[in-house]
Design a protein that fits this description.
With 456 residues, the chain is an alpha/beta fold. It folds into 3 domains: 34 residues; 209 residues, P-loop containing nucleotide triphosphate hydrolases (Rossmann fold, 3-Layer(aba) Sandwich), CATH 3.40.50; 170 residues, Ribosomal Protein S5, domain 2. It has a 9-stranded mixed sheet with strand order 6-5-7-8-4-9-10-11-12. A 4-stranded mixed sheet has the order 13-14-16-15. β18 and β19 form a beta hairpin. It is globular and about 80 Å long. The N and C termini lie far apart (89 Å).
Length: 456
């Protein structure tokens, strides 16, 4: 009979070694090797005599009966609701509100079905204190709590209770007794997730797993964790703002890279039905250097204010500061403005930020960024009720962007009356005046009433 053997597994990258080293030879991390006892594989494998594979035409269709979370924003990111038997990983920084989001979700589900909350990091008393603040006691009857870190106990409870939905908070805190490594190690996270996946598929229990984030922003644990689960969600937010963003990075049952927006309040997370209002701050009191764009996060349009400040430099090299937008994109836009409009930006400091710090990375924001910079340079206002949509090419042309109709409908909904768009798009829209432009100079004249054509 084969004996168990000892291997050393790197908790950072998952590389295995037959002997201990102070430094992992795969990723270079120091003191990251954990001792793991590996059981031998079975000597003889049973081979099925009959063929198991079927033609695709003979595979039966399955209509997923999704379970609504009670939150339209959460359902949007999941693709319409929770799929029975699925594994959903929700990752985010410490204190961002992952436990709050899931506890509120379970409270809504508990109104119709028993649910289970497994707390591996907090005691039952700590969870109850949070529940008193977030949810009413009317939803407590079907919300079961298990404060446990041992995987065997959790699996036994899931098998006995068989809830429709269960939360594991968090996967990095669970411990499988057959392994000698510490909780959170590569081997522990891999084995615990695999065991939970088998139970979820067998009992059709949807499991929502909480995941930690490393200082580099990646999900802690082995990369195989993201491959094992069906959906990976990222819960993000600004430490100086109350809103939270829930993004889908992977989704086997719906579109990926969808976006849900919540607001953190003393009573917990509240979904934001009209997120564009969050990022429009100066509509009633316009200021120089502010332009409005329509950014698209997956299929969702968001109206965002771009703020710019252009000032004389006090240093030998002028500063370029970008908050919420790509720095290299800003430098490229400034070069185009200086080349094709003759604006002496090489001698000026330029600061550009998106309202609320929302990350805007798509090229459709180029025209709005350029107009905000020009408005600050000339100290004038962009024409009221105007949105700007378009990519700025290196030769000064305004290039078309996708999802134009979706962007314009969102602008009309928020009360905007004018839209400066690429000339390739000319479809009329009720209640909105379209101003097609081909190059940056006509866009400047259409957006800034006090602007004049540059000399030369």
């Amino acid at each position: 009979m084969a004996k168990s053997r000892t291997r050393y597994v790197c908790r950072e990258c998952g590389a295995e070694s037959a002997q201990y080293f102070g430094q992992c030879r795969q990723c270079g991390a120091w003191n990251s090797l954990d001792e793991v006892v590996v059981s031998p594989p079975p000597r003889h494998l049973t081979v099925a005599a009959a063929r198991q594979a079927l033609p695709l035409s003979q595979i039966s269709d399955r209509d997923w009966q999704r379970l609504s979370t009670g939150s339209a924003e959460f359902d949007r990111v999941l693709g319409g609701g929770i799929v029975p038997g699925s594994l959903v990983l929700i990752a985010g920084d410490a204190g961002i509100g992952k436990s709050t989001l899931l506890l509120q979700t379970l409270a809504r589900l508990a109104a119709t079905t028993p649910v289970l909350y497994v707390s591996a990091e907090e005691s039952g008393q700590q969870v109850k204190l949070r529940a008193k603040r977030l949810i009413t006691e009317a939803h407590w009857e079907n919300l079961y709590l298990l404060a446990e870190t041992h995987l065997e106990t959790i699996l036994a409870e899931l098998d006995a209770m068989r809830p429709q939905v269960a939360v594991i908070d968090s996967i990095q805190a669970l411990m499988y007794g057959a392994l000698t490594s510490a909780p959170g190690s590569v081997a522990q996270v891999r084995e615990c997730t695999t065991a939970l996946m088998r139970v979820a598929k067998h009992h059709q229990t949807a499991l929502l797993l909480v995941g930690h984030i490393t200082k580099e922003g990646a999900i802690a644990g082995p990369k195989v964790l993201e491959h094992l689960v069906d959906t990976v969600l990222y819960f993000e937010g600004d430490a100086f703002a109350n809103y939270r963003l829930l993004r889908a990075g992977k989704n086997r049952f719906g579109p990926s890279y969808e976006l849900g927006i919540f607001e953190m309040t003393p009573q917990g997370l509240r979904e934001v039905s009209n997120p564009s209002v969050l990022f429009l701050t100066h509509r009633e009191s316009p200021a120089p250097g502010v332009a409005t764009i329509v950014a698209c996060e997956a299929s969702r349009p968001l109206l965002v204010e771009i703020q710019a400040l252009v000032t004389p430099t006090s240093y030998g090299t002028p500063r370029r500061v970008a908050t919420g937008i790509d720095y290299n994109r800003l430098v490229q836009i400034l070069a185009v403005l200086e080349k094709h409009l003759g604006i002496p930006l090489a001698k000026l400091d330029v600061y550009v930020a998106s309202a609320g710090g929302l990350g805007v990375a798509e090229p459709a924001a180029d025209l709005g960024i350029a107009m905000a910079v020009l408005a600050s340079f000339r100290h004038c206002l962009v024409k009221p009720h105007t949105v700007l949509i378009g990519e700025l090419g290196l030769s000064g042309q305004i290039r078309p962007v996708p999802q134009m109709e979706t962007r314009l409908k969102e602008a009309v909904k928020l009360g905007f009356q004018r839209a400066i768009v690429p000339i390739a798009y000319g479809d009329p829209l009720p209640g909105l005046e379209l101003i097609p432009v081909a190059r940056i100079l006509p866009a400047l004249l259409a957006a800034l009433p006090e602007a004049a054509a540059p000399e030369g």
